[in-house]
TrEMBL record:
Gene3D superfamilies: Transferase(Phosphotransferase) domain 1
SUPFAM superfamilies to which the protein is assigned, alphabetical: Protein kinase-like (PK-like) (SSF56112)
Protein name: Protein kinase domain-containing protein
One GO process term, biological-process aspect: signal transduction
Organism: Ceratodon purpureus (Fire moss)
GO molecular function: ATP binding; protein kinase activity
C-alpha cells in the first residue's frame, strides 16, 4: 500500500474510468449486412495472478493444479451465501439455447446494449436504430488457467485481442491485463440477470452515450463488459487488479507478526476512506452491495476497489459481516420474505466489520461457531483495540448499531474521515483539484 509520503505522486496516475469509453470512443465494430469471418489469431495467455485464494505466484511461474484446488477448497468457508441458485447443470443444453436468445435481447437494449459483447463469433443482433447493421465480434478472447472459484462462478486469467488495434496498443502501453468471471455451466442468463443491479447498467449506458465525459476517479472494480462465450456460458470481463485486501492483510501479518496491526495508521485510514468512497458511489447509483468484506476489495499500487457487486441481488452475505437484521431473518428462515433487510444500512454494518479486519488483521468472531448468530443478536460486537483514537472507535461502533436507522450513511462516513484524518483530508483535496483540472479541459 502507498504510504502517506508517497501519496502526492499518485496524482500522476489517478485511476480514471476506462478511457475506451470516453470522448465517444467505442470498442464496438459495426458492419453492414455481410458479417466478417472470425479472426485466426492465436496467442498465449498472460502469466498468473495473485488471487483471493492465496498469495499467488510470481510472474512467469505457475502453481500446480493440486495447490490451486487446495486453495479453492479451503476458500469455500468464505464463499458468499446465495438466496437462490441460477444454475441447473442437468439441463445445460436447453440453458445454452435460451442464453443465446436472452443475450441477443440484451444486446438490443437501446441504453446499455453496448455493454454486452461476443468474441470470436456473433449472434447477428440488429444494431438499435440502424437498419441493416449488426453487432459484431469485438475480437478474440484467449482463456487462461482458472485461478479462483466461488459459489456461482470461476475466475480465469485471459488475454483480449481487440478487433480495433488501437485498444490492443492501449493495453500494451498501459500494461492492462484481463480477468474473466465465468458463471458455471448450466447457469441461466434469464435468471442471472435478475441479480444484476440496474444502477450499474444504467451508468454504463449513460457513459456510452455521452461524448465528452468528465473525469471519474474509480474506487469500484470496473466490470467492462458482459460477454457470452461460444459454449453459451455468460461471463463478465474485468480489468485485472493485483490481489484482494484479505490476501494483503494476511501477507502483512506474516511479515510483521500476528500481534501487530497489518497497516500503519495512515495506511489504514486511507484504505478505509477509499472503500467508503467506492461504497458511496455504489449507493449513489442505487446499488446495494450485500456482501462487503475484505476478500471483496481489490488492491493495486496503493488503490483499493470495491468488487463483486455485479450480481449482488442474488447474495445474502457472509457470516458475521451480516447485519443483525439479516442474521435474524436467516435464523427465522424468512429471508425471502424480508428483502428490505438487504439495505444501504446493512452495507454500513458490513463496512464496520471490514474496518475491523483492516485495523486488527482478524476476522469478526473468528473463533466463534458460524451458525451461532445469538452473539450478535444479543448485542455482542468484536473488541476494538485500545490504541484506536476515540473518533475511530465511535465511527465503527456507530456502523455496528443494532438499529439500522442509527447507522451513518457513507456520506457521513466520508465527512468524518475528512474531519479527523489528515491523510483523508489531503487526499480529498488532491482529488478535487485533479478533477477540476480534468473537467476544465473537457469543457475547453
Amino acid at each position: 500500500m502507498a504510504s502517506t509520503s508517497a501519496l502526492a505522486s499518485e496524482l500522476k496516475e489517478m485511476q480514471l474510468s476506462d478511457p475506451c469509453c470516453t470522448a465517444g470512443a467505442s470498442m464496438e465494430t459495426e458492419f453492414h449486412t455481410a458479417l466478417q469471418p472470425e479472426s485466426g489469431c492465436a496467442t498465449s495467455a498472460p502469466s498468473s495472478f495473485l488471487t483471493a485464494l492465496g498469495n499467488g505466484v510470481e510472474s512467469g511461474k505457475c502453481s500446480s493444479d493440486v495447490e490451486r484446488d487446495e486453495r479453492i477448497e479451503t476458500s469455500k468457508v468464505h464463499w458468499s451465501e446465495l438466496s437462490e441458485a441460477a444454475f441447473d447443470p442437468a439441463n445445460d443444453g436447453a440453458v445454452e439455447l435460451d442464453n443465446r436468445t436472452v443475450f441477443r435481447e440484451l444486446q438490443s437494449h437501446p441504453t446499455w446494449g453496448r455493454f454486452f459483447k461476443t468474441f470470436g463469433y456473433n449472434l447477428r443482433t440488429p444494431y438499435p436504430g440502424r437498419p441493416g447493421y449488426y453487432r459484431g465480434s469485438s475480437g478474440e478472447l484467449v482463456m487462461g488457467k482458472k485461478f479462483a472459484e466461488g459459489g456461482q462462478a470461476e475466475l480465469f486469467d485471459a488475454r483480449v485481442i481487440w478487433r480495433d488495434s488501437k485498444f490492443n496498443e492501449y493495453d500494451m502501453r498501459e500494461g492492462r491485463e484481463w480477468v474473466v468471471k465465468v458463471f458455471k455451466k448450466g447457469t441461466s442468463l434469464r435468471q442471472l440477470q435478475v441479480q444484476w443491479p440496474h444502477g450499474y447498467l444504467q451508468f454504463k449506458g449513460e457513459w456510452y452515450s455521452t461524448r465528452n465525459n468528465p473525469g471519474l476517479i474509480r474506487y469500484f472494480c470496473e466490470v467492462v463488459y458482459g460477454i457470452l462465450l461460444k459454449d453459451g456460458r455468460f461471463a463478465f470481463l474485468m480489468v485485472k487488479e493485483h490481489e484482494d485486501l484479505r490476501c494483503l492483510i494476511e501477507r502483512r501479518m506474516l511479515e510483521i507478526g500476528p500481534e501487530r496491526e497489518p497497516f500503519t495508521k495512515e495506511e489504514g485510514e486511507m484504505i478505509m476512506y477509499r472503500i467508503a468512497k467506492g461504497m458511496h458511489w455504489l449507493h449513489e447509483h442505487n446499488i446495494v452491495h450485500r456482501d462487503l468484506k475484505a476478500p471483496n476489495i481489490l488492491c493495486k499500487e496503493g488503490w483499493v476497489f470495491v468488487a463483486d457487486f455485479e450480481c449482488s441481488i442474488g447474495v445474502i452475505g457472509t457470516g458475521f459481516w451480516r447485519a443483525p437484521e439479516i442474521l435474524q431473518a436467516i435464523k427465522d428462515k424468512k429471508v425471502s420474505e424480508r428483502p428490505e433487510v438487504f439495505s444501504r444500512e446493512a452495507d454500513v454494518y458490513a463496512y464496520g466489520m471490514t474496518c475491523y479486519e483492516i485495523l486488527t488483521g482478524k476476522l469478526p468472531f473468528e473463533n466463534h461457531p458460524l451458525w451461532d448468530y445469538n452473539i450478535v443478536l444479543n448485542g455482542g460486537r468484536p473488541k476494538l483495540p485500545k490504541y484506536l483514537e476515540d473518533w475511530m472507535c465511535d465511527l465503527i461502533r456507530s456502523c455496528w448499531e443494532y438499529n439500522p436507522t442509527k447507522r451513518p450513511s457513507f456520506r457521513d462516513v466520508l465527512d468524518i474521515f475528512i474531519t479527523y484524518s489528515i491523510s483523508a483530508k489531503d487526499d480529498s483535496e488532491r482529488e478535487r483539484t485533479y478533477l477540476e483540472n480534468k473537467r476544465s479541459k473537457v469543457v475547453e
